[in-house]
Structures are given as structure tokens and as C-alpha cells.
């Protein structure tokens, strides 16, 4: 299938999406370091990005020139397993020699408003990013930009309150920041995403669609997330 306004690729399964994501990240890193001496990557939360991070933990790369940021974060203590930064550290960053001063977690434990203000200059000093990694929720949200929530047009980082999934308080990069990137990867996996993908294909103004169109995005879907490709029957 093809989503309007963005490049789209359908892969066999979640594992194939993770493998292709890891490959594209490594290729983008090599190109950015060769061209500009640094690679600036925005990380996403969720199971499929974590699968890609596990593959990166086994890879060889010029880690000393990687600079890592987060697209969003939950307002939880820094050591909470529900934090995006903690999950990325556990499966990947604790296992490779990226300098810790080049890993930039969102200080969401300060609260949504204070953390947004603190992260704004960090993002301002990093854009344009070389690559932004995003996922999509079953409601069509991406990062912590949810349907029906006002998206601040000016700031690069915004506080999020009353999120429809816990925790209610979060911090998110805005489209103004996410779209200031040389390339964007949007990962969509699982049968639970079919309805949102169908809405996206029909032109519904979901947050993920708005961001992807403005971000030079490649959308990687697995087969079961694609409405026109139902799951294969279990013959076992």
C-alpha cells in the first residue's frame, strides 16, 4: 500500500521492520559522520524501536560521534522501567561506548512544564537532526502528540497533560522540532494498528500523518498492520 505524501514500505513482520530500521540507522550514521563529523538521532519508545536497539547493541559503529535525543518522555522517576530513556539504556546504550555527555534524556522527572523548558535549548542546539525515529499508537498518535490535543505551533518542546494513556503528564518534541530532520523513519507494526493505518490512508489528519508529511518520512509497516494485507491463517 501507499500512504499519501510519504514513502511507504511493507515488510514481512516485526522482526524485518526492526532489522531494516537498524540497517537504515547505521547507514545514516555513517553518512552523517562522513559528511558532518556527527550523527544526531532522535529515539522513539515502543517495542519495535527497542527490537532495533537490541540489534544496534550488537553492531559495530563509530559510537564516539553519535548524539542521541528523545522524541518524548513520560513524567516518571529516571529509574522507572516505563521511561523511554531507561529502556534504551538497558537494551542498547549501556552496551556501546557512546559518550554519556552525548546522550540527552528529557528531564521529565522535573514535571512536564519544567522539563519542556529545560529541553528546549538542548533541541535548539541540535537541529536539524540527521534522523528522527517515530512509532504510531493505535489511535494514530506519535511521540506524545495525541489526537484531539492542541499542538503548540511555536516551541520545539511542549508539556503534555491529560494524555489518554498513562501517565497523563509527558513531554514531547513538537512537529516544529521533529520535522527539522534530514530523514524520518516511522515504524508501524501489529494488527492493532490496521484501523489507524486505514484512517491515515483515507486522509484523516492524525498526528502521525501531519508529522510524517512534513518530515521527509519513510514509513515501515509490517504485513499485519496493513489493512489490505490481513494476517495469514495459522496452519499449525
Automatic annotation (TrEMBL):
Its EC number is 3.1.1.31. Pathway: Carbohydrate degradation; pentose phosphate pathway; D-ribulose 5-phosphate from D-glucose 6-phosphate (oxidative stage): step 2/3. It catalyses: 6-phospho-D-glucono-1,5-lactone + H2O = 6-phospho-D-gluconate + H(+). Pfam families: Glucosamine_iso. InterPro entries: 6-phosphogluconolactonase_DevB, 6PGL, Glc/Gal-6P_isomerase, NagB/RpiA_transferase-like. Keywords: Hydrolase. It is an enzyme of class 3 (hydrolase). Residues 13-215 form the Glucosamine/galactosamine-6-phosphate isomerase domain. CDD domains: 6PGL. Hydrolysis of 6-phosphogluconolactone to 6-phosphogluconate. PANTHER family: 6-PHOSPHOGLUCONOLACTONASE (PTHR11054). Belongs to the glucosamine/galactosamine-6-phosphate isomerase family. 6-phosphogluconolactonase subfamily. This is 6-phosphogluconolactonase. It comes from Thiohalocapsa halophila. The lineage of its organism: Bacteria, Pseudomonadati, Pseudomonadota, Gammaproteobacteria, Chromatiales. The gene is pgl.
Amino acid at each position: 500500500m501507499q500512504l499519501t505524501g510519504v514513502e511507504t514500505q511493507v515488510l514481512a513482520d516485526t522482526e524485518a521492520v526492526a532489522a531494516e530500521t537498524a540497517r537504515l540507522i547505521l547507514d545514516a550514521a555513517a553518512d552523517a559522520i562522513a559528511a558532518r563529523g556527527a550523527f544526531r538521532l532522535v529515539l522513539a519508545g515502543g517495542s519495535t524501536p527497542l527490537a532495533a536497539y537490541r540489534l544496534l547493541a550488537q553492531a559495530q559503529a563509530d559510537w564516539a560521534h553519535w548524539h542521541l535525543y528523545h522524541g518524548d518522555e513520560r513524567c516518571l522517576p529516571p529509574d522507572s522501567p516505563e521511561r523511554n530513556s531507561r529502556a534504551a539504556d538497558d537494551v542498547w546504550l549501556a552496551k556501546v561506548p557512546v559518550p554519556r555527555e552525548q546522550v540527552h534524556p528529557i528531564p521529565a522527572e522535573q514535571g512536564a512544564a519544567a522539563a519542556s523548558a529545560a529541553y528546549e535549548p538542548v533541541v535548539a542546539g541540535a537541529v536539524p537532526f540527521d534522523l528522527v525515529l517515530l512509532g504510531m499508537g493505535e489511535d494514530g498518535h506519535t511521540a506524545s502528540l495525541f489526537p484531539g490535543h492542541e499542538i503548540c505551533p511555536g516551541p520545539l518542546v511542549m508539556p503534555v497533560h491529560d494524555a489518554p494513556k498513562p501517565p497523563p503528564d509527558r513531554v514531547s518534541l513538537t512537529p516544529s522540532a521533529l520535522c527539522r530532520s534530514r530523514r524520518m523513519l516511522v515504524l508501524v507494526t501489529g494488527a492493532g494498528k490496521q484501523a489507524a493505518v486505514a484512517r491515515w490512508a483515507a486522509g484523516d489528519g492524525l498526528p502521525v500523518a501531519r508529522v510524517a508529511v512534513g518530515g521527509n518520512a519513510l514509513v515501515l509497516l509490517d504485513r499485519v498492520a496493513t489493512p489490505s494485507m490481513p494476517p495469514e491463517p495459522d496452519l499449525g
